Amino acid sequence: MKRLEILNFKSPNRAPLKVEGFLFGEESKGPSLAIVGAMSGDHINQLYVASRLVEYLRQKEKEGKVIGKILVVPAVNTYALNMGETFWPLDKTDINMMFPGYHLGETTQRIAAKLFESLQGYDYGIILEGRRDQGMCLPYVKLIQSDYEDLDSARDLGMRFIHHRRYSPIETVMLQYNWQLWETKALSVVFGKNGSIDPISSKEVHGSLVRFMSKRGMLDIPVFEGFSSNVIEPDHITVLKASHAGIFEPLVSCGTTIEKGGTLGYIFDALSGEKVEKIVTPISGVLTCQYSYPLIFQNSIAFRIASIE
Amino acid sequence: MGVIEEVFSIDLPVGEQFRIQRCRYIPQSGETLKRISIVSGIHGDELEGQYVCFLLGEWLRANPEKIKATIDIYPAINSLGIDSITRSVPFYDVDLNRIFPGSKNDFLPAQIADGVVNAMKGSEIAIDIHSSNIFLREIPQVRIAKSQAKTLVPLANKLNIDFVWVHDAVTVLESTFAHAMNMHGTKTLVVEMGVGMRLSKAYGHQLLDGILNLLAEEGFLDIEPLDVRKPIQSEIGEVAYLNASYPGLFVPAIEHCQMIHKGDVVGHIVDPLSGQMLDEVIAPIGGILFTLRAYPIVYEGSLVGRIFGENG
């Protein structure tokens, strides 16, 4: 294992921002993969999975099982992680909205450019992502349609769902889109709840990453098969919104198979305690995401259900 | 007297509503289909537009007989952010101006964006007033995507601003309020002026004159057009960006909005710990310093200024 300094960026008063990568194996022996962990300060679960993977790969390398080249960058925005911020602490910009970066541009554009430079030339790229909302979700693959995406390799993660959809304008400045354009088969694995660690999701994601590396020829180890992934398009997702604001009490958790008519949760008036809403599913399917903060806004998305009806 | 209306409301969890309000002024003869929307506060830390909204409301209250068509004033789109010095939508930490046109079936910021579009759809013109951010001070200017230049530049020239900046189309800006409204056929101008979290009174009055002129020329007010300044057009020159080469404390050497020469010192970056001067920020071209950093802490790459220089 080589510990690489991907960037060292001076601060006016803090210790320098150091972004480190952990490199395993050799390129000449097999395919290559780069994995990027926490780009935001609240992506603690992503940091956790990435750093545990570094430890795992260190063992496997000692055992002579690494046959490709694997780079893991557990954390990019360490400044934000170290102070409970989400984005770049000074100007609140999101590093994952700055790709492909610009060496002569603003601070986070320069950080993105340096990181992106170090990610060039890999056959595969996996971004460990958190959610953009106050939700938690079943781990899934987010694969945007840039015309360069690779669904076959995404299936080798063996995750239950692959959300395959057209990119939105803001995604054109995100890592996945740009990485794909620069000819790396890039995808994102989205999981967990921002600001926390979910051990079950973490194990599942770890298992998927190991499966991917084994199936794609970077690790010489046998693995169990995962799911035969369901490719989900936006039409397959039913959104259940909270008609009322208040205290949210979910009765089910992500991954649960639910039947049409089942009660998924309640909302209580935050002051009077009155039950103001019972959330009932109009469709059968699998609960993929749920609102994860105890106070809920009116019209917030309480649950997302994947179905094939 | 304008009528205050609530155009969007969502219950917050504990006994409060997130709401967007407008003040609608109509002709004494009644409401018209011809409508303009004056908008501010999409970013909660930008307050210059709030002052302009006040000044315009004050003028309209004093001159109701001059109103020929519907004039809507929306001073506070991100009302939760404005009242808490928060640029993004609080709780979600999402830049509202990167989520348009929004959706009813997405998280709260997207629903707010959808509500804003629906409230203003049908307006002939919209003026979206921003204050740069807390880091940079800007002269009054309008920014326009190249694809919209033909329609919007003539309108921007009526606004009594100093600079019209036509920039290349960038896909990410398709998520802005202005792009969403332009796609709906509402001619939408984005004004940037002043600095975040502060008021620049003179700029407020300058833009008020511009808005009154535009309202007169476009048939919203029955007044004579005002004698407004002719803005510099970006097509006739180039914009030079001044980014910090070192982290430290940026100390400007000259005032904002000055004409400067190539080679002039714009400011210094200094190290308060060692007492050393780290860098001299030098103007790479001559022209007008239309952007100057207001917040002194800089990292490498932080924008400290922008100069517009005419070609030749």
- Residue runs with pLDDT of under 50 for 5 or more positions of chain A: none
Distance separating the two termini of chain A: 48 Å
Number of domains of chain A: 2
Instruction: Give the quaternary arrangement of the chains.
Output: heterodimer
The name of the CATH superfamily of the largest domain in chain B reads Zn peptidases
- How many angstroms separate the termini of chain B? 52 Å
Give me the strand/helix succession of chain A. Answer: EEEHEHHEEHEHEHEEEEEEEEE
CATH domain fold name of the largest domain in chain A? Aminopeptidase
- State the order of secondary-structure elements of chain B, H for helix, E for strand: EEEHEHHEEHEHEHEEEEEEEEE
Q: How does the helix and strand content of chain B classify structurally?
A: alpha/beta
Write up what this structure looks like:
The complex is a heterodimer of chains A (309) and B (312). Chain A contains six helices and 17 strands. By secondary structure, chain A is an alpha/beta fold. Chain A has two domains: 2-231, Zn peptidases (Aminopeptidase, 3-Layer(aba) Sandwich); 235-306, OB fold (Dihydrolipoamide Acetyltransferase, E2P) (Beta Barrel). In chain A, strands 1, 2, 3, 4, 5, 6, 7, 8, 9, 10, 12, 15 and 17 form a 13-stranded mixed sheet that branches. A four-stranded antiparallel sheet of chain A has the order 14-13-11-16, with no helix packed on it. In chain A, strand 1 (2-9) and strand 2 (17-25) form a beta hairpin. The longest helix of chain A is centred in the N-terminal third of the chain and has 19 residues, at 44-62. Chain A is globular, with a radius of gyration of 20 Å. The model of chain A has no long low-confidence stretch (mean pLDDT 96). With 312 residues, chain B is of the alpha/beta class. Helix content of chain B is 21%, strand content 34%. The relative contact order of chain B is 0.14. Chain B folds into two domains: 3-230, Zn peptidases (Aminopeptidase); 235-310, RNA polymerase II/Efflux pump adaptor protein, barrel-sandwich hybrid domain (OB fold (Dihydrolipoamide Acetyltransferase, E2P), Beta Barrel). The A-B interface holds A 9-13, 86-87, 90-92, 97, 104-110, 132-134, 168-170, 172-173, 239, 241, 244-247, 270-271, 295-301 and B 10-15, 18, 87-88, 91-94, 98-99, 104-108, 111, 133, 135, 171-175, 241, 243, 246-249, 273, 297-303.
